[in-house]
Amino acid sequence: MTYEITAPPSLEATVALPSSKSISNRALIIHALTGGAVQPSNLSDCDDTAVMRAALGLMPPVIDIKAAGTAMRFLTAYLAVTPGEHVLTGTERMLHRPIGILVDALRSLGAQIDYEGEEGFPPLRVRGGRLPGGRLEMQGDVSSQFISALLMVGPVMADGLVLQLTGNIVSRPYIDMTLCMMREHGAAADWTDVDTISVRPTLYATTPYLIESDWSAASYWYEMLALYGGRNRIRLGGLSDGSRQGDSVVKYIFSLLGVRTNFVCGSDGTAPGVELERRMARVRHLDFDFTNCPDLAQTVVTTCCALDIPFHFTGLASLRIKETDRIEALKTELRKLGYLIRSENSSELIWEHGRCEPTFAPIDTYEDHRMAMAFAPLAVKFPGLRIRHPEVVSKSYPRYWDDLARAGFSVRPVEAE
């Protein structure tokens, strides 16, 4: 399937954002560990959360998490502390996403996990039971999902968990979000040093829990507004100024790209959200370290190119092992629109106004939801922009194309080339 997208002449929209996938998946694991009956409310309806709910609800002998990387990491740890034997598998791409660091960590804490295929990669056979736990040293520059997976099962280990992180600690806001959610459910878990987290053995408490809207999803609407001139406005529901989501930093990044964020409440005071408005002032060059918010990189890269703002972005090493190699994917697809960006040190992206002859070939999405959603707003500058396999957005934002259509975009299926 291919979509052809044309933007409206102006943008005035109110958008009901999806719930946070990151919070939903953590809430589901913690809920399962409580053994309680009170399900988290306002759970995300995306693919990643759906596979997590199905796995935890049915617990079949073979659990296929498809392309859900979060589910693979979180369920590996959850199954390791849960009685029973299961095989965890996924898509072909998932079977090439490394998981050895998490498996080694769990094994050192007493887990029984075997590789069903290539060493260091899924599928995994997990034989679960109560683990002794203890002290563990782990690299801090690995996926924060590995760290969060370990932390969430720490309270149910006999001796709890003391996790010391070595080197540079990446995506710290996601770790802090996990710790906060654990404490909200009764766990005793916190930083005890700049590089050490302690989790005491305790029982999680069953408690009602409301999932907030997704700041990552909001980023694409920030991008759209940044690309428009004149007086345009967007309202996004369910976002609050005190959010613990790391991607809430998008409000700061886009303040440098000409978008003002105003926090508002509904007339009854119970419906928080933001109103975005364009202002003309923006930076002439942007340097930014995405170590703590790598999922925003594609949005900001495409925005800067379209606004003709050169950039130097660092902290992108984790993009190599996402749904696709996002660094190479960005370089390839932006070349179709006439932009030549380059990478350095496997963790940096640089653009210095490099241009080439555009082909305007359809944008490929590489089974990556964020490629589709980050490129779609470029229809503001490139009317009739085409995107292949647009259905990938279901991984995190199933209503994305419907929301674009409601905002006045033409989203038209065309024959694939």
UniProtKB/TrEMBL annotation:
Native species: Prevotella dentalis (strain ATCC 49559 / DSM 3688 / JCM 13448 / NCTC 12043 / ES 2772)
Active-site residues (renumbered): D295
Keyword Amino-acid biosynthesis: yes
Uppermost EC category: transferase
GO biological process annotation, one example: aromatic amino acid family biosynthetic process
Protein name stated in the entry: 3-phosphoshikimate 1-carboxyvinyltransferase
Location in or out of the cell: Cytoplasm
GO molecular function, one term: 3-phosphoshikimate 1-carboxyvinyltransferase activity
Entry GO terms, CC: cytoplasm
Pfam families (UniProt xref): EPSP_synthase (PF00275)
Enzyme Commission number(s) from the entry: 2.5.1.19
